[in-house]
Design brief:
The protein has 281 residues and is an alpha/beta fold. Helices cover 35% and strands 26% of the residues. The strands form three sheets. Strands 3-2-1-4-5-6 form a six-stranded parallel sheet, sandwiched between helices. A five-stranded mixed sheet has the order 8-9-7-10-11. The radius of gyration is 19 Å and the shape is globular.
C-alpha cells in the first residue's frame, strides 16, 4: 500500500484533450496525493500550450516519451496518447521500474502485448492500471467472471461526427455524413471493433479484459444523427444471473470522439491508488 505521506510522482505522455484534463486535475488536487513531474507530446505547440496553462515551471517538458521515462523519481507513467504509444513505451517503462496507467486500452486487443506486459509487471512487482473509461458495470462483470460468463455484449450508439474518419468506414466506403436515422455500422467481436474504430471503442476492450476476452465479447456500433449523448449499453449473462447497464455520456468538450467520463474515471483511479479504503471490486 502506498505511504499516505508520500506523493505519487507521475509523468504524462499525451497533451491532447484527455491528457490536458488529467494534468489540470492533478494540479488542482482532484487526483489526490499525486505530483505531476513531467509532460510529453510529439506536437510541440500542444506541449507548450499545456505547459504554459499549468503554470508550473518545475514540471519538465519533453517531445520524446523516452526522454520522459528517464526523469528521476517518476513512479507512474500516464499514457494518454495512442495505441501505438502503448506498444512503443510500455515495456521500456516497466523495465525502468515505472508502473503504467493506460488510457488507450484498445492496445490490449493484442494478446501477445498484453501477456508480455502482464508478465513484465509481475516480474518487476509493478502495476498496470486500466481505468473503467466511459462505462458502468465493470465491477459487476469482474465479479461475475469468477464463475462462468456465457455472454458479454456492448452496444455503443454515437453521433456520426464522433465516428468520422474511422478506418472501418474508409475501408468499406461508408458515408455517414448525411444520415437521417440510426444505422448499425458494425456487429462483431471486440478485437475486430477496435481495429475498425480505434478511437471510439476502447471501452469494448476494457469490458473484454474484465470478462471473457476480445475474441468473445460482442460489439455493436450504431451511428445516430439524433444522438446528443454517447450511449453504451452493456449486457452480461452467466452463473451469477444477468446484468444490464446503460451509460449516456456527454462528449468531452475538447474532443467529440471521447466521452467526458473517460478522463474522469482515470482521475478517480489516481485518487484511489493513494486512498486507505478501497470501494468497489
Amino acid at each position: 500500500m502506498m505511504d499516505m505521506e508520500h506523493s505519487l510522482k507521475v509523468g504524462l505522455i499525451g497533451c491532447g484533450a484527455i491528457g490536458r484534463t488529467l494534468a489540470l486535475a492533478i494540479i488542482d488536487g482532484k487526483a489526490g496525493n499525486v505530483e505531476l513531474s513531467a509532460i510529453c507530446d510529439i506536437d510541440e505547440e500542444r506541449l507548450e500550450s499545456l505547459h504554459k496553462e499549468l503554470g508550473r515551471q518545475e514540471i519538465k517538458k519533453y517531445m520524446s516519451p523516452f526522454d520522459l521515462l528517464k526523469v528521476p523519481g517518476i513512479e507512474l507513467i500516464i499514457e494518454a496518447a495512442t495505441r501505438e504509444t502503448v506498444k512503443d513505451i510500455s515495456e521500456r517503462a516497466l523495465e525502468m521500474g515505472k508502473s503504467l496507467l493506460v488510457m488507450s486500452a484498445g492496445a490490449f486487443s493484442d494478446k501477445d502485448l498484453y501477456e508480455n506486459l502482464y508478465s513484465k509487471a509481475s516480474e518487476k512487482k509493478l502495476k498496470i492500471y486500466i481505468p473503467s473509461g466511459a462505462i458502468i458495470g465493470l465491477d459487476g462483470v469482474k465479479s461475475a467472471s469468477v464463475e462462468k460468463l456465457r455472454r458479454v455484449e456492448i452496444i455503443s450508439t454515437k453521433n456520426p461526427r464522433s465516428l468520422e474518419g474511422a478506418p472501418y468506414l474508409k475501408k468499406n466506403n461508408i458515408d455517414i455524413s448525411h444520415l437521417t436515422e440510426a444505422k448499425i455500422l458494425f456487429q462483431g467481436t471486440a478485437d475486430k471493433a477496435i481495429e475498425g474504430f480505434p478511437k471510439n471503442v476502447n471501452v469494448a476492450v476494457i469490458l473484454s479484459l474484465a470478462g471473457i476476452g476480445v475474441e468473445n465479447t460482442l460489439v455493436t456500433i450504431v451511428a445516430d444523427p439524433k444522438a446528443r449523448l454517447t450511449k453504451h449499453e452493456i449486457k452480461a449473462e452467466g452463473d451469477f444471473g444477468e446484468l444490464h447497464g446503460i451509460t449516456q455520456n456527454y462528449l468531452h468538450p475538447d474532443n467529440p470522439k471521447t466521452s467526458y467520463l473517460a478522463p474522469l474515471s482515470a482521475i478517480r483511479l489516481l485518487k484511489k491508488i493513494s486512498e486507505p479504503v478501497q470501494v468497489g471490486t
